[in-house]
Design goal:
The protein is an alpha+beta fold. It has 5 helices and 21 strands. It folds into 2 domains: 239 residues, outer membrane lipoprotein receptor (LolB), chain A, CATH 2.50.20; 78 residues, 2-Layer Sandwich (TolA/TonB C-terminal domain). 17% of the residues lie in helices and 42% in strands.
Length: 375
């Protein structure tokens, strides 16, 4: 090889190394990417803001198939969130550290909790927003990064927490494309600019169901993603709201809920400190009942569970789940230096059954895939 060829080869090798280094440098730090995504969807940093969502619920009956969700937000210390439909009126108001709630329905609508969780996933559930669910504890979490193609976009997916939450983000725009966690699966599209923010105009909510089938001597599980809600979003800034809009409604319940101007940085998200494995009740064992139970837990200032309400799930399993969740313990949710009560949705699943064998015994055992593996 001549000196000229050797020099040319050396230059090519150096160029390749530099190109590889430059390409590696474009891979954004996972924590920075997550923060970027949350910040650009965070509407709750400058008011006033009005959000209107036309929500269609696929599995609802009658008038509750089409709902409207309206948020009137002046600041982290004053906001109103309202669900309305024929036969439904549900209002939550925060004003001067007092949280007021009223509903004309005795039972909490699962679909409203689901949709509010879908919006909270866009900005990490920032405490400055109109949320009663606790914020995502992501800032000090260990992030597990992967890649996934979503609608022709090479998304970066970041998983964290226990139970696991997975957020898939377009690295070029920072837009959140999907969120999967204990509350189901959320999809976001048709982003539009709102001042310095970018917010989706379309939100879809799905949940995963598990069904069991016999195949010869064995019992197998199959899983399906079921769309249950779709919403068209409208966001406007600058609208002036009358003070009367934030007065506590008649017959509402009121609780302390600390708030301050710097709430977005003056808080500590709660973590699950202790969980208890749920046991299947005798009735569920006898009926061969398996599946998921969703529970809304009311958590006190000290992080202990004060009460539970079942949102959905097989009736035979519910008592075992509520008994376990009532023993959960969280670290306190701190807002503006004060511990506050909060709500947490908990999904508890049971192991799939082992295969059921036909006579004569014993055949060679085969086991189904495990999903979900415990609570």
């Amino acid at each position: 090889m001549t000196k000229t060829n050797k020099l040319l080869l050396s230059l090519i090798l150096v160029a390749c190394m530099l190109s590889a280094a430059a390409f590696a440098g474009t891979e954004q730090d996972p924590q920075e990417l997550l923060s970027k995504s949350f910040q650009q969807a965070d509407l709750w940093n400058q008011g006033p803001v009005k959000v209107v969502a036309k929500v269609h619920v696929d599995n609802a009956n009658g008038d509750l198939r089409n709902l409207q969700y309206t948020v009137s937000w002046v600041g982290p210390e004053k906001w109103r969130a309202e669900w309305s439909a024929p036969g439904l009126h549900q209002i939550t108001i925060l004003n001067n550290g007092k949280l007021s709630y009223v509903s004309n329905r005795p039972k909490i609508l699962w679909s409203t909790i689901w949709f509010e969780a879908a919006l909270a996933a866009l900005d990490g559930g920032t405490p400055a927003g109109p949320y009663l669910l606790a914020p995502l504890a992501y800032e000090n979490a260990k992030l597990h990064a992967s890649k996934k193609k979503i609608n022709e976009t090479e998304a970066r997916c970041l998983a964290f927490g226990e139970p696991k939450t997975t957020l898939c983000i377009d690295p070029a725009s920072g837009h959140l494309l999907t969120a999967d966690g204990s509350l189901g699966s959320f999809e976001y599209s048709n982003y539009t600019s709102v001042g310095n923010n970018s917010y989706p105009q379309t939100v879809k909510v799905s949940y995963v169901t598990t069904s069991f089938e016999y195949d010869g001597p064995s019992l197998w599980a199959s899983h399906a993603k079921n769309p249950v809600e779709g919403a068209q979003m409208t966001v406007t800034r600058g609208e002036q709201f009358p003070d009367s809009l934030f007065a506590a409604p008649e017959k509402s319940t009121t609780a302390d809920f600390a708030s301050c101007a710097d709430l977005a940085t003056n808080f500590t998200a709660p973590d699950l400190e202790k969980s208890v494995k749920a046991k299947r009740p005798k009735a569920a064992v006898e009926a061969h009942t398996y599946g998921l139970v969703w529970v809304l837990a009311a958590v006190g200032k000290d992080g202990s569970v004060q009460g539970t309400k079942v949102l959905s799930g097989p009736r035979e399993l519910r008592s075992g789940v509520t008994s376990a969740v009532q023993q959960y313990k969280y670290t306190p949710y701190m807002r503006c230096g004060q511990a506050v009560e909060f709500r947490q949705v908990v999904g508890v699943g049971f192991d799939q059954p082992h295969p059921v064998y036909a006579e004569p015994q014993p055949p060679q055992p085969t086991y189904p895939q495990c999903f979900p593996c415990g609570p």
